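[Meeting: bench + compute handoff]

Bench side (C.D.) handed over the final construct sequence. Compute side (W.E.) agreed to return the predicted structure before the next meeting so the bench team could plan truncations. Sequence as handed over:
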Amino acid sequence: MPRAKRHFIPGYVWHITHRCHKKEFLLKFARDLRVWMSWLFEAKKRYGLKILNYTATSNHIHLLVLDSGERAVIPRSMQLVAGRTAQEFNYRKKRKGAFWEDRYHATAIETNHHLISCLTYIDLNIVRAGVVKHPSQWEFGGYQEIQAPLERYSIIDHRALMDLLGIPSKEDLRRLHSAWIEKALARDDQVRECKWTESIAVGSNDFVESIMNRLGIRAKGRRIYGVDGGFSLREAQAPYSINFGSNNERLSSK
């Protein structure tokens, strides 16, 4: 199976996806999802990871981050979050073996309407799975935090998100974010879009070409494809299959 790729270039927004080993439902309990979120907060505090949105499900996670240019912030953060989540789970369950797939996938997202679409796509991940009818009902995602910012222990960097979207206030962000979600829900076409999870970059043709040029030799063999409303730089990769089911419907802290 081809290994997932992550080609981080400073100054870009990245959509990161990471699956549990063999798509197992290792995050099906609420306590384990909270552990993942606590280490995500720790990565923000320890390394300055700029988190724009996130959601965690029973067998995979989505994370939207800004690479601010500091050396290795994203890889170090992912190592911390994934490693400590796995360690705590295996210790508690007296389990051995891999918890995550060996590598996570990262997709560069252009900071215009593509960023809004990706932000919305992440929020609606759990709705597409049929677990909830609205992202406000899901505790383990960024929707609630964007709608009601926390004074303490905030995971999302609201200032970074507002600056990227050109939104002047948290109240405007809350209002617009809610409108994007409701508009997407009204379309009633919640299907998985592989461009967000299998591409190296998503955006305008100029944006995708710029990523391709900056990758240089690492972009060899990749092609630019037209997708709905834009373009994506794609690589040969095993399908990113999300397999939900009853294991993801009942969460427990036990």
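W.E. noted at the follow-up: Residues 13-241 form a domain with the Alpha-Beta Plaits fold (CATH 3.30.70.1290). C.D. will use this when planning the next construct.
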